[in-house]
Amino acid sequence: MPDFTRIINMAYMRILARAADPGGLENYNRLLNDGMSEAQMRETLIRSDEYASKNPDTISARTHVGDSASASTGSRKKKKKRKSTKKTRAAAASKSRRSAARTKTANKAKTKKSARRL
C-alpha cells in the first residue's frame, strides 16, 4: 500500500496552515489508498469547519455540492453584466468618435464657406 503522508501533510499545510494530526493522517491515507483522489481530499479540507472558522469570508468553505450550481450561476450573471457594460462602453466610445468626426467635417465645411465669402 502506498504511503500518502507527504501529500496529506502538504495539503494540510496549504489549506489549514498546520501539520496533519495523527488521526487525520491515518484517515486520509486509508481513503487515498481506497480510491479517493487528491482533489477530493483537498476539497474535503476546504469544506471543513476548521477551514471555515479560519476563513470566515470565504463562501466556498460552507458551500455544499448541491449549492455550487447556484453559486456558479451568480458568477455567470456578474460576468454577463460586465460583458454588457463593456459593450455599452465600447458603443458609447464608437458613437463619440463618429460624432467627433461629423463635427470635424462640419467645421471644415463652415471654414470653406467662410473662406469663400471673404
Tell me about this structure.
The chain is mainly alpha-helical and 118 residues long. The chain has 2 domains: 62 residues, no CATH class; 41 residues. The chain is 75% helix and 0% strand. It contains 5 helices and no strands. The longest helix has 50 residues. About 7% of the residues have low confidence.
Defining traits:
single chain; 118 residues; 2 domains; 5 helices; 0% strand
Which sheet architecture does the biggest sheet show?
none
Sequence of secondary-structure elements: HHHHH
Helix content: over 70%
**What would you call the structural class?**
mainly alpha
Mean pLDDT: 78
- Radius of gyration, in Å, reads 30 Å
Span between termini: 100 Å
Number of domains: 2
Query: What is the number of helices?
Result: 5
Oligomer: single chain
Number of strands: 0
Global geometry: rod-shaped
Strand % is: under 5%
Poorly predicted ranges: 65-72
Overview in brief:
The protein is mainly alpha-helical and 118 residues long. Helices cover 75% and strands 0% of the residues.
How is the secondary structure organized here?
Layout (H helix, E strand, L loop, with lengths): L4 H12 L5 H12 L4 H9 L2 H6 L13 H50 L1
